[in-house]
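Q: Predict the assembly, please.
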Amino acid sequence: MFIPIKIKIRAAVLIIVLLFTFFTLFYFPKQEGNYLLKAYNSQVQNLANSVALGVKIALNEENFEGVKTAMEYVKDKPDLLFVSLVQTDTLWNNAHTNYTLKQSIFQTVPSNVHPSLQIHSTDSAIVKRAGFKTSFMSGDILLAFSTNEINQTEKSIRFTSLLVGACILFVGMIISFWLSKNISKPVVALSNAAKKVGKGDLTPVITNYANDEIGELAQVFNSMVQALSKAQRELKNTNETLSATNNTLSTTLNNLKSTQAQLIHAEKMASLGELTAGIAHEIQNPLNFINNFSEVNTELIDEILSSPNINISEELKLLCNDIKTNNTKIIYHGKRADAIVKGMLQHSRTSSGQKEFTDINDLCDEYLRLSFHGLRAKDKSFNADFKTDFDEGIDKINIVSQDIGRVLLNLINNAFYSVTEKRKTADENYKPVVSIQTKKLSDNIEIIVSDNGNGIPQNIVDKIFQPFFTTKPTGLGTGLGLSISYDIITKEHNGTIKAESREGEGTRFIITLPCK
Amino acid sequence: MLFIQVLLCMFFIFLSMNARSQTEMLTVISNDKGAPAELKLSDLKSILLGEKQRWRNGNKISIALMKTSTPAGTYTCKRIYDMSSDELKKFWLALVFEGKADAPQFFNTTSELENFVAENPGAIGITDQPPASADTHIVLIDGKKML
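A: Predicted assembly structure:
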């Protein structure tokens, strides 16, 4: 159970004061009364002895001054009840062989008091006897004094004790409050300050401390808090430094991971490219045969049908036409396959283009317009807005302009395709926009091709740079455009290309190329 | 011879009578500022019993007696107080005890008694000899010098 220190101090002082008050109020008066009674008893006994001695001397030496003096002294006492002279007579029997002692009161002062011979002390009277013996008279002096004075004295002592006890209690209460305040207040202040420090607040400072051990404790506490505060600041600084280092390390780690991913991706792409080249190379020869001989077959059939020397039936003509049609299809698809193979070979082939310092803003603008107008020429219904935001502070950069142009064309075509597709399903308020932006960075330039089309789902955005990966319907894309673009940017120009997309909102392709 | 014996007997008888007479003769002496020249026996007894505390002139009466162990004292007890010495002591003890009177001063010798009487105005004493001091005088009791 938590008991505040000031309560303890007050309780302790109060207990001491109460004990002392009890002692003063009860024990001391009682003891004092007993002492007074005892002294009174002695005094009365001494008086009785004095009177008895005086009587003895008076009777023996016929000098009654002692009796007179003692009696005058005794009679002046206000508490005197009586003084009796008891005579003891020896009564012999007739044969003088046995005797009895008979006591009788010889004289009593005051004369109107008739005490009993068996009288003894009570609470209200002290009765003392003192014997005397002379040749002709023996007896006792019986002296009785009232205890009124003692009782009055005891009452007076009690009253004084009560007053003293009350004063002591009052003073004790004041002292207890003063002590509790002077001890508990600084202790409570220390406790509260310590609690604050425990919660992390290192601002509390103990002031107004006394010149004692508690004051010393307060000073030590202040020093401790200052040291803690200083240590905390140093720790904080160290933490900040470590945090910055950690951030740097984290960034470095992320960069390393990114670089690792890029390296893996690049390696994969390189592997894919090699694989593609190998397959394409093997396929191209048979494909050439297919295409060539299909064309030959078509020519032969034309020759048969057109030759006047050859008589063919109608049925045979129909068959020849069918064969010709089939050949046309074979040629068509053969060429398509050839185009794919050529694309694959192109993909695997490193560029042999010459780098030259090129105005990237002009290049972007050229290919943007080229794409737009090309698509407009193919499809009259095609329409979309395009915007440019070129950083005029970009100097010419050393690039293979044709390859970069191909990349830009690819990205812009894809952007126009995406917005066109979205336009088919969007409401009439939808405005397709493709924009291209250039920005000069510290050591790089940034080209951003963005659109507000359908966007790319997150689960496939990492795959778009893989060869043959396409989201377009069959026949509309080979799936090699972005793969080739990736190679051109990363391998040929030591740049980066990445895609940021939100499905349903649009896509941004961000290309960075070194300035030098 | 017989005559001589008778004379001797009468002489010794006479001496003893004289001795007894001397012993049994008391003289009341007083300080000049004390008792009057003459007192009645009854007054004397009253004074010696402590019934009277002061003379007419206002002086306090101081009684001087020979100790009861002396012949004069013994005779005083008998002649004046009609008590034995023990009874006299008890008598005065009772009076002093009660505080009713001051006890007499008891003396061992006549000269001490006389000196006391001479030095204390109001003192009266019983002795068996006439006083030698000029400051004291014999008090006639019922006209007699001797009791």
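Chain B has one domain: 26-141. Helices of chain B lie at 2-23, 41-48, 71-81, 85-98, 110-119.
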